[in-house]
Amino acid sequence: MTESDLPVLIERPAHWVSGVIFGSPHSGCTYPDWFLEGTKLPPETLRSSEDAFVDRLIAGAPALGAVTIRAQVPRAIVDLNRAPDEIDPLIVRGVPRHPLNQRTLAGLGVIPRVVSQGRAILERPIERAEAERRINAYWRPYHQALSALIAEARTRFGQAILIDMHSMPHDALNHLHGPRPDMVLGNRHGLSAAARVSDAIVAAVEAEGWRIRRNSPFAGAYICSAYGRPCQNIHVVQLEIDRSLYMNERTITPHAGFDDFSARFGSVIRKLAMLDADGQANAGIAAQ
User: What pLDDT sits at residue 5?
Assistant: First the structure.
């Protein structure tokens, strides 16, 4: 099995400093032939649903004392930031038409029906057995690995802080009033992470000169709601980055400012890698 065949990749530091994990569930970009044969969209259109290059932005985290976990499967095949029962009956046959949440109604369930701009992925619906195969092959391994990392961090450090990394199209913020943010922090309006942890993340981002907004228009999805338990010292924050800051959204390639952005974001990672649940740098652990 090659690295590209693995459903999830975990990179560990020589010394895990403070129980901080950076996750990238949407940066997978390898589309197998069996999937491409059933889609009406070319790969460059499918890739519009990816958080392209987010895995590269967090690649330096292990050298700074944090763990990274990233998915290999593209979001167009299965969405790891959805619950396994968020199944859209318009794309999966034999699924009860029980009340659906807004994401699933919009075609953005665990088996997505559309990519950006509402473009349909598949020529026809798939069988329920195929949906279950994808969930078992890709969704469950990622979440089993993520759950294990969070439990390990909680045992070793008394805390776990997951920073779930995503990207957003530049035009996703066109409707907002006031100064346009460069990033959006989602913590389920305080339900998935303590204010002191969220405040520290905001401060690290703003120290690099970027504007950040909280919970609007992205408050955090399944991963935040499933794992964030501030009362148990498990804090989960979703961080969305405006794609135009580091990539050409039309060609899905890094633009000329990618290296500069990546270096500046590395300064954010450096601060967050040693973050404790009080929102302070855990210098004592960092000295291991």
Answer: 57
Reduced to 3 states, what is the DSSP secondary structure of residue 93? coil
Q: What is the pTM of this model?
A: 0.93
Determine the residue type at 92.
Answer: V
Quick one: average pLDDT of 32-47? 92
Residue 258 carries which side chain, given as an amino acid letter?
F
* Residue in the structure block whose two tokens are 């499967």: 73
Could you tell me how far CA 111 lies from the centroid of its own chain? Answer: 16
- Whether pLDDT at 154 is above 80: yes
Can you say how many angstroms the Cα of residue 82 is from the centroid of all Cα atoms in its chain?
11
Task: Show Cβ contacts of residue 262 under 8 Å, excluding neighbours closer than 6 positions.
Answer: 56, 57, 246
| Residue found by looking up tokens 């953005």 in the block | 108
Q: Is the pLDDT of residue 2 over 60?
A: no
Helices (H) and strands (E) in the chain, counts: 10, 9
